[in-house]
Amino acid sequence: MAKSETRNEVEVRSQKVDELRAQGIDPYPSKAYQRSHTTQQVIDLFSPPAKELEAGEADPDAKLLKVCGRITSKRDSGSIGFINLTDETGKIQLKIEKKLVTGDPGLGFKQIQKLLDVGDFISAEGIGCRTNRGELSIQVNKLEVLSKAIIPFPDSYYGVNDPEICRRHREMDLAGNAESLQRFRMRSKILQSIRSYLWDAGFDEIETPTLQAIYGGAAARPFVTHHNALDVDLYLRIATELFLKRAICGGFERVFELGRVFRNEGIDSTHNPEFTSLEVYQAYADYFEILGLVEDVICYSMTNILGDLKEIEYQGQTISLERKYDHSQKYPDFTGKHWQVKTMVEAVKDETGLDFDNLELPEAIKATEKLNLKLSKLETQSLGYLLYAVFDQKVESTLIQPTFIIDFPVEVSPLAKRHHSKPGFVERFELFIHGTEYSNGFSELNDPQDQRKRFEEQIAQREAGDDEAHPMDEDFIQALSLGMPNCGGMGIGVDRVVMLLTNTQSIRDVIMFPTMRSTLKD
């Protein structure tokens, strides 16, 4: 609709607001409305094996139905009119007859015809019936306006097609696109499923600060703000990790937090500066046990939302979520079947042929020249950095089916415990699906002296130009010095799980109000 047409319709609708008020009708009444049925309940009431009505028949019991919702279509034909009323459960047709809707009480027939529009919220009372064509309807005897819409409602057939409008004005997207409304309902159910699983598994949900004096728990750039009363700069958290582990130090054994984190980074199909993260920490566990927990949380959510499926379609590819690999021979810590598991060295060797277990740094650098990598100076200074760079640029995108990559270089894992048998590596995993990271976890480093050393190494990296290196955190080291039991922890990118389970290509379409460039002019 052109802007001029939109302005004209806004003017017409605004005049209708004035007319309603002039006739003593409040277009935005404050009183509560108690409906007796949702639209779906009305449908169920008159569907087999319940009561069935023939074409042209009204409910012989004359059961009063009180419904409310939004007008999503409206048509008039002489002394009769029809309105499609939509609520969050579905829609039902309202049959408006001039002889039955007198306006005492409520709106009169002419007021309904002339002053109501698609998009308005109304309430209606009447009895069930079927039209002569057999469509289930409510034969209305009273109708009231609950809220008058001023701007045009999205087209009932085409909805809102412009992604920019959908993301910037999500309310229009939800109102005009049933699939978008369903997607965000599914998101809510996924969050409920995650919480339910963890609560049932004995985890305590706790809350950690969003404003932090020292940001930490991940490699990312923070957002900076200023606290006026304290006259200090603070950071929006980039992760909840360090405070959750401090709770473990204090005596909690199983904790999690499901909430927003903030990273001052780029925006693309899998990244938004503000996103939802799940972090979980369990005392007396290692990374193998936590790896299984990641599987459980995702599979439990999938089963709750989609049923007992073995595979799903995502962006044109079939993703198998069946646990079919028995790793007990290779990794004795595993019991039962799991998704695919590879060490980072194995994954790089399988994809590129380079065996980092048998390479020194000079020959590794020479061998990677054929791969056309974009390497920073830092990534050529150690075998661990180089291994990670090869994996990141050449392997990650190839991991379509659920795959856990385990045993990361110590250089890129400042908070993970050193591997019990592999020098230069840590006990860490990441889960990849469709070439994207979904989860990160590890056996948590609980040696305060080693942690201090790792932080000092991160400071050196920052001085060498790595602005995402982890800062020193004396409070966290003090917490570790109090004592933390061996512990496993993990994080899951919740928005990406929602993308997977709703077959959504962009993260901005599963975040209700994603970060957008301001439309305000300077």
Quick structural summary:
With 522 residues, the protein is an alpha+beta fold.
Task: Describe this structure as you would to a colleague.
The chain has 522 residues and is α+β, with helices and mostly antiparallel strands. Helices cover 31% and strands 24% of the residues. It contains 14 helices and 18 strands. It has an eight-stranded mixed β-sheet with strand order 6-10-11-18-17-16-15-14, with helices on both faces. Strands 1-2-3-5-4 form a five-stranded mixed barrel. It has a three-stranded antiparallel β-sheet with strand order 7-9-8, with no helix packed on it. Strand 12 and strand 13 form a beta hairpin. Helix 6 packs across helix 14. The longest helix has 23 residues. The radius of gyration is 29 Å and the shape is elongated. The model has no long low-confidence stretch (mean pLDDT 94).
The largest beta-sheet arranges its strands as 6-10-11-18-17-16-15-14
Number of alpha- plus pi-helical segments: 14
Main sheet makeup: 8 strands, mixed
Estimated structural class: alpha+beta
Helix content: 25-40%
Low-confidence stretches: none
Instruction: Give the averaged pLDDT, no decimals.
Output: 94
Keywords:
alpha+beta, 522 residues, eight-stranded mixed sheet, five-stranded mixed barrel, single chain, 18 strands
How do the strands and helices of this protein lay out in sequence?
Layout: H1 3-22, H2 39-45, E1 65-77, E2 80-87, E3 90-97, H3 109-115, E4 121-130, E5 136-147, H4 163-168, H5 170-176, H6 178-200, E6 204-205, E7 211-212, E8 224-227, E9 232-236, H7 241-250, E10 254-262, E11 274-283, H8 287-306, E12 311-314, E13 317-320, E14 340-343, H9 344-352, H10 361-368, H11 383-395, E15 403-409, E16 425-433, E17 436-443, H12 448-463, H13 474-482, E18 487-493, H14 494-502
Parallel strand pairs: 3-5, 6-10, 14-15
Antiparallel strand pairs: 1-2, 1-4, 2-3, 4-5, 7-9, 8-9, 10-11, 11-18, 12-13, 15-16, 16-17, 17-18
Helix pairs in contact: 5-6, 6-8, 6-14, 7-13, 9-11, 12-13
